Amino acid sequence: MRRAAGRQARGPAGGASAGVLALLALAVLTACNTTRQTVPKSVAPQPVEAPSAAAAPAAPEPSDASTQTAPPAAQPPAAAASMPPPCVCSRTTPKPRSKHNYKRKQPVKQSEPESVGPLPPPPANTVVDAEVGRIDGPLTAILGKNVYSPKGEDLGRVVDLLADPEGRVRVAIIDFGGFLGVGTRRIAVDWPLLHFSPSDKDKPLMLTVTREKLQSAPEYKDSTSPRVLMPPAAAPDAAGAATTK
Amino acid sequence: MLQAPPPRSESHPPAAGSVPATAVRQSSTAPPSSVGPTGAGPPKSSAERGLDWFNLFVANIQTGFGPFIAVYLSGQSWTQTSIGLALSIGTVSSMASQVPAGALVDAIQNKSRVAAFSVLVFTASALMFAIHPIRLFVYLAEVLHGVSSCTLGPAIAAMSLMLVGRMGMALRLGRNARYAAVGNGVGAALMGACGQYVSERAVFYLTAALTLPALVALLPLRRRAAHGNDPLAAKPRNTAGGTGSLRILADRRLLIFCGCAMLFTFGNAPLLMLISGTLTAKGSNPSLLIGACIVLPQIVVAIASPAVGRFADRYGRRLVLIVGFVMLPLRALVFSTTANSTLVIAVQVLDGVAGASFGIMVPLIVSDVAARSGRFNLALGAVGFAVGVGSTLSTSAAGWVSDHYGMRFAFYFLATMGLAAVLLAVFAMPETRPGADEGEDTRPLQS
Fold first, then answer.
1. DSSP β-ladder status, A205-207 and A169-176
2. Distance from CA of B56 to the nearest CA of A (A)
3. ipTM score
4. How close is the nearest chain B Cα to the Cα of A66, in Å?
5. I need a surface site. Which of A27, B95, B342, B375 has the fewest CB within 10 A?
6. pTM of the model as a whole
7. How far is A211 from A231, CA to CA, in rounded Å?
């Protein structure tokens, strides 16, 4: 999660518009070829928030900001740059995912050094010179896939993903229960609760909560400030993730 | 208990009794040739049985097009927005085509052909869902299904009317409702199992496959329709133009009934959705409980429908309608106080009673009101439109109320709607039973 933030933050802060463009290119590549138009737009709002976070590494920062920005500074640039937004999840998670993610493309590395300094926000509707690249490692399609508990119970299916303004995926919406579509409940779960094993064809997505917890969680209503099923003590969770770095 | 013997045997008397009714009416206004055909063609009982099976299979098929579509499309990686759009397209197209489809069915002489065509369109829609659920096909399938539902419902009612005449209509509709309920229940069980154990896609192949027996069930009706004649729709069509349509749509009884139907549906449609959401949150085996909540009322409808039809003939439509409507506030009030699964399922019996009453009263009252106008299906379409408006608005309204004021108030809200339907029926809805205002029509019934 922080890695992604770092990537985002570094872009705007980096000073060189080339770096931003490269990052945008990465975003486009990692997202999907068909979303070229939309990606830059969605990225656009970030600069507004990102600089503040990005400025942090340069200056001493409040603890809050440090959790966001410290890791990128600490990380090897290549790794940080190569993280696409989805790798947010690697907070609590398992290596396999981050491993795959680390293998991402090289071009971005070049942007790394430039992106460290201050940078004027890129124009909102910048169209980047996107290229076709290849991402190694098995990835997992998420939307519409069933999630299973560690015990193998069917817990429903992922029907939506929510991202924060930095583009980090924060929440998965799980459609749970019901009979023939009647009485299903949509429940927001914190992204780190999902675990991925792309090699498992039958059950690639695991949700580490009990069926009862999921069942009794409040129904997901709106995306502005959803009530989310989280791992115990979410704040320590962030800190723990920082230390794992 | 009286209808414990197989429905076929119990329906013979009404069928036989209604032949004179048809004959009398036809001989008074229609060319004598149409009296002959009533006796010609395949025996009436085979046509009646065909209609039974047709109702059953159509209900089976319609289960596949229910809320399950949302589940299936989610599994095809459709986003919630696209699914919402697809379902809205279906709703809008069916609402928009209710009244025109009714008018169309009025205008077409051979109702069984309309029914067969509608079922074939269902086949196409189901296959589109199953084979290639891309946007174009899903949207198209939704439109096709929405429109052909609007032609199929009236076509079934019109075939019933054609088969038994207006006097036998209450009993025939009771029988229709019974078989439709069996079809709904069996369909829900079949498709639930299919989705669970085979695949979600297979549900739509099953739906498509079930259209074949439906078409076969139509055969005796088709042969009969080729000989027979629609006693109500055929005649006035050539005389009256648009004014007849306007007159029937402005009929006070029809308008009040539309109001009742809209209020009732407004209160009724979201009730299962709300309570099953609660069950999902609390129950120990929510899917099974919800399945029970869906299937149990169908069992009640299957058992009670013929009796409801008889009651409507004996005690009048108004009473049956009011009794059915009263079930809604009762259910809503019980749901507002408890989410105990046993109690919830028990209370769903009332839903069966309401469903039987409402399901039979809609075509019955419309056939009373539209008698001889040749606008039976148009009027049925108007009621269908009112029902569609009620159910469409209510789902979001109830969702809004439960979001802002809590689930309990949502149930109070729905109970209030049900109460309003009851009050409107009690104080404004006139009796439409033929005997009540037309002396001539009662005679054949008593004979």
1. unpaired
2. 19
3. 0.72
4. 35
5. B342
6. 0.70
7. 14
